[in-house]
Amino acid sequence: MKKIIVIAGATGNLGGKIVAALLVKDVEVRAIVRLETDLKKIKDLEQKGVKVFQVDTTNPSEISKHCIGAHCFVSALAGLRETILDTQKIFLDAAFAANVQRFIPSDYSSDFTNLIEGQNRNLDFRREFHKYLEKMPIKATTIFNGPFMDLLTTDMPLILFKQKRILCWGNPDQIIEFTTTYNVAEFTAEVAIDDNTPRYLRIAGDRLSCNDFVKLLTELTTKKYKLLRPGGISLLNFIIRTTRFFSPSKNELYPAWQGMQYMRDIMEGRIIFQKYDNNTYSNIKWTSVKEFLIKEKVISK
User: Fold this and answer.
1) Domains of the chain (ranges plus CATH)?
2) What is the pLDDT of residues 90-128, one digit of tens each?
3) Contacts of residue 280, Cβ cutoff 8 Å, sequence gap at least 6
């Protein structure tokens, strides 16, 4: 009998990739979506073979009836407190009421277990949800994957292509973990159908320092890249506080200061994986930063 995997957030970027990774497995995929979800997105999922259920996501009993018989509930929600805490709690309660045995929370981030509470708003939401999750008699597995590698060519100001610089706060030899969203999705799909997974799994498609980035970008572009070191972590913290004071942007998911908080966290050295779980599933081919940048045609930038 096919395992049933229920997913919330299937219409999002990562959620859609998790769905695609699940669909190549011998499982039934069910997606719980909001009443106001775009009909085209629903039809796209259904055409791929997903069973889609439009529900009132404030009603746990309504969600629960579509979770009956499921092996695992996967959350790929993205948002602020209302989503990561309030809505995700409702999904967790619904999964438990339907006797779903396993739950994967929407973490997919750097390992925040060693970070100082109160210094990263979005990670604090996840930490607060964990406090609720730990009280529930359901087997949960969190996936920590470091920053998404995809951000290197979009929203993460680490590689300054035009200036031929690598932005570095603090120690230029500090190792940073990166994983593509495709690899995270593949790994999540494996975890979802696995019967025995630990509370935490830590993966990294690649691990580089700022100095490593200088060498790599110089190699790929044949242009001389250098470090740009505006200051240390203490200066970055001051900039974060100042930016947040003058531009709080409380309703934005990624205001400028939030991106700075992520940058500070990955360069501060508190996020140190003692071991990696990449080898848990042998069929996944992990994408390196070099492979990713070549695929993204970075050498033409």
Assistant:
1) 3-146+179-203+274-285 (3.40.50.720)
2) 999 999 999 999 999 999 999 998 888 899 999 999 999
3) 187, 190, 201
Instruction: Judge contact between 184 and 151, C-beta under 8 A.
Output: no
Count the residues in the chain.
301
Residue 124's alpha-carbon distances to 91, 94, 120, 138, 265, in angstroms, are 19, 23, 6, 22, 13
Nearest-angstrom CA–CA distance, 166 and 43: 43
SS3 266: helix
**Using one digit for the tens of pLDDT, what is the confidence trace for 177-208?**
999 999 999 999 999 999 999 999 999 999 99
Instruction: Check if the beta carbon of residue 250 is closer than 8 Å to that of residue 195.
Output: no
The span from the first CA to the last CA of the chain, in angstroms, equals: 50
Sign of CA dihedral 189, 297, 229, 240: negative
